[in-house]
User: What shape does this take?
Amino acid sequence: MSESIILLVDDDADVLQMLAAALEKQGYTCQRHVSGEDALEDLDIDAIDLAIVDVRLPGMDGVALTSELKKLAGGEQFLPVVVVTGGDELAERVRAFEHGCDDFLTKPVNITELTARCRSLLVRRQQRQELVTANERLRELQVKKQDLAALVVHDLRNPLSAIQGNIELLIEELGESTEFVREALGDCHKLAGRALFLVAGLLDVEELAEGLLHAELQTVSVSDVVHQATPHHEATIRMRELSLEFELEENLQARLDPDLVGRLVENLLDNSVRYAPRRGKVTVRAGSENGALVILVGNNGPPVPEAERERIFGRYYRLEARRAGARANRGLGLYFCTLAAHAHGGTIAVESIDDLQACFVLRLPQP
Assistant: This one.
């Protein structure tokens, strides 16, 4: 604290001299001024660690000066200001506090009290600066973490795309021979497609969360969007002996981003397929309702508890309980669904509707 610089503002030369002498004896450097206007002229606010100002100054008074000093210091920098009063007027103190004052001293100033208050406020300033520095460091680390994740995800896309392309070539070359090999390669092709889907989701979550990714609206067939989202779940549906039913309004078209909504529906299907009871039913419905496109994806399994229905869409939400023998989605799938719905100006919620006790309801307004 010995290198701290203290701004002193008082129109009484004797008081200025007394304050400066006491503080300089403690190792502080003092800048003396007789008015608020004088103090603000050519002031380097970053060089000041603490200010002590008389409340009754000629021209700009101490309260107005306090307000100006706080404004110059900005929101993150804590510049403590002590106001010196000539009496114990409550209204004067309240007004000073409302304008940013941090402490008071009453004339005649007690030197021991003066140095103790300065020491305490300067410690608070140093702690605040350390917190600001730490927060800035955390922000930098977060940016680096996001950049690294983005680089890894981008780097994953190339080899996964190459694997998928080579598998497609092998399947074509094999023709109708060696059915077992064709099936194995077909499964690998689906898995590579699933991995690419997850990689794309990771990228889009970051961009959607930052408001950088926008829905590119097109007039499309809702049936096409829905059916394109289902192939990745065929193996799980067969393994768990589920029935997948579609109840889609005939010739339904809507304005939406087919890529975002397609992946949104796929995420909802993923959740519904894994939560459905064995030999249960998964249903996808789509139709128009009150000027909005409504897509429902659900199953006849147990309902999502009321307490979980909003939190389940959180980015870092983890549901540890098991329902119907399935562990909850641990990825960013439902968070992505929320962001994609919001990008369309729409909503998504969990409801219980008719025979679909666990049902996701997507509502997208239509022009």
